[in-house]
User: Which sequence fits this backbone?
């Protein structure tokens, strides 16, 4: 590579982080991209959109979120690599941006620890009824009751990737039995971080054995609607679901019915379908539900961590080496 390496950063990043990117190689040029044009809450004048597209005309690399509209990717005909700042690339898959003539990499694993901590936190809330205590406090109620414990219970982890693994390790520390699933599992394959490893095809076993079912799968055509009425009916009435994947992994109407009629005991939802969750949704007021606004992976210093990962990959890129976290355009993760 002797030509300039032009990079467009399509989200707000601090000047210090930009300098770290520029310091990787003297050939790097960070183009002036007006990130405001990508804000979904703004009506952007056409001349501003045109200016943004012009900035992308000669870029080699884009570093930004997976929510970029296709029209801006189309404006970069020479794009060779898109480093996404998210772990999931389901939006890009929906827009037909995977499988084009550029490599897509994600930040898989970047937020695995904080998301696993979120899972343990909400699991403890459900186990101890702390969400009920918060509601009682607001109503000035002294509602004494006995509570359960996590020790000896089974956590079922659908998706034994980076997040699933960090969750499994923490659940083990609480004395829980860990059953986990992966897309494919070889006959007799074991995993040191779980007691039972299952392929996705044995979802029924995972459902039946879980006291807490944690959804960590990427959103793909295969996992959309993974948990519907039939699947919920196979769970224990004392079981709860924790979803940190994507809202569309669950049939939300079926989930509401199951929560209301006692098919399952509770749910902690960091993701919903749609997002934000509409104010009229019944989920807000169900006493056995914890709702959070997609914050499980919104860890402090996220931009710093994403930049560190990008800089490492950028060094590989300029050296002509294989990139890390390359997304499979067929599997969409």
Assistant:
């Amino acid at each position: 590579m002797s030509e300039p390496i032009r990079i467009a950063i399509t989200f707000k990043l601090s000047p210090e982080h930009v300098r770290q990117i520029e310091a990787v190689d003297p050939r790097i040029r960070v183009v002036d991209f007006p990130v405001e044009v990508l804000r979904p809450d703004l009506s952007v004048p056409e001349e501003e959109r045109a200016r943004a597209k012009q900035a992308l005309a000669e870029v080699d690399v884009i570093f930004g979120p997976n929510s970029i509209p296709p029209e801006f990717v189309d404006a970069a005909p020479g794009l060779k690599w898109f480093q996404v700042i998210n772990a999931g690339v389901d939006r890009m898959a929906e827009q037909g941006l995977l499988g084009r003539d550029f490599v897509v990499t994600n930040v898989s694993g970047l937020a695995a620890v904080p998301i696993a901590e979120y899972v343990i936190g909400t699991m403890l809330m459900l186990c101890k009824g702390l969400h009920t205590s918060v509601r009682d406090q607001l109503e000035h109620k002294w509602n004494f009751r006995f509570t359960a414990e996590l020790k000896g219970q089974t956590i079922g982890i659908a998706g034994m990737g980076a997040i699933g693994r960090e969750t499994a390790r923490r659940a083990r520390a609480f004395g829980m039995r860990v059953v986990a699933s992966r897309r494919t599992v070889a006959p007799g394959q074991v995993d040191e971080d779980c007691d039972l490893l299952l392929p996705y095809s044995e979802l029924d076993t995972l459902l039946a054995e879980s006291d807490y079912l944690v959804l960590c799968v990427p959103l793909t055509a295969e996992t959309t609607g993974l948990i519907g009425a039939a699947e919920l009916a196979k769970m224990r009435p004392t079981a709860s679901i924790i979803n940190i994947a994507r809202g569309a992994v669950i049939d939300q109407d079926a989930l509401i019915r199951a929560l209301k009629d006692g098919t399952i005991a509770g749910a902690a939802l960091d993701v919903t379908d749609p997002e934000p969750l509409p104010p009229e949704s019944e989920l807000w007021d169900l006493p056995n539900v914890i709702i959070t606004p997609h914050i499980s992976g919104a860890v402090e210093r996220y931009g710093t961590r994403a930049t560190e990962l990008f800089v490492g990959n950028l060094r590989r890129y300029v050296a002509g080496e294989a990139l890390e976290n390359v997304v499979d355009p067929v599997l969409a993760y």
User: Anything to note?
Assistant: The chain is about 30% helix and 15% strand. The chain has a mean pLDDT of 96. The two ends are 29 Å apart (CA to CA).
